[in-house]
Amino acid sequence: MKIYAEFTSLPNPQEPAKAIWPDSCWLLSDRPLYIPDFASGFVAITALAGKIGRLGKCIASRFAHRYVAQWTVAFIILPKHVFDCICNGESFDAADLCFDNAVVLGEWNQEPPEALRLAVLRPGRESLYTDFNSDTAPLYSALVRLSTRNTLKMGDVILAPVIASQSGLEEGLTLSVSDTADSSATPMLSTRFK
């Protein structure tokens, strides 16, 4: 299985930066994540995630919705300098993306969430909340582009980042994402950083 994402930069929105991770790089929700030490800082980017449910190659955009079987949210963990390169439309070393726990995946659901709330909880400080819509169009576009060069297989994961929701990582930080339609439900995704 592979995990695929496209990052749109402001200077060059027509040419998104692409990233592919093996499934050995993912971590499931509600598990602690140890912040890596190979870079001076890291950020977590919230993303909508779709799991592929059927084999496909060269998928037309009008059929893309047929290939996503399950939905969730994810955190993409990036070194800060890579995040800055993406935002500025600059190239970066692909090796800086591939490390243990680089992608944290939430609980899978049959339908995409309509609206999400990101909670940023830092010890000793006020909690911050960000609400955002979960637009499926960027995920479908990424799926179509990926399928022109790769055969999509059951279990592959496509990520559509929400760049505006990036959070710097520090020890003791907890990030969680909930579906705002059901405020009493447990979060779809939650991660504690150590």
Q: Could you explain the architecture of this structure?
A:
The chain is mostly beta strands and 194 residues long. It contains two helices and twelve strands.
Strand order of the largest sheet: 2-1-10-5-6-7-3
Q: How would you classify the helix and strand content by structural class?
A: mainly beta
Number of helices: 2
Distance from first to last alpha carbon? 28 Å
Largest sheet: 7 strands, mixed
What are the segments in which pLDDT stays under 50 over at least 5 consecutive residues? none
Helix content: under 10%
SSE order in H/E notation? EEEEEEHEEEHEEE
* Inertia-based shape: globular
Tally of extended strands?
12
Radius of gyration: 16 Å
Strand portion: 35-45%
Overall mean confidence score, pLDDT? 90
Task: Provide the descriptors you would attach to this structure in a database record.
mainly beta, 7-stranded mixed sheet, 5-stranded mixed sheet, 12 strands, 10% helix, 41% strand, globular
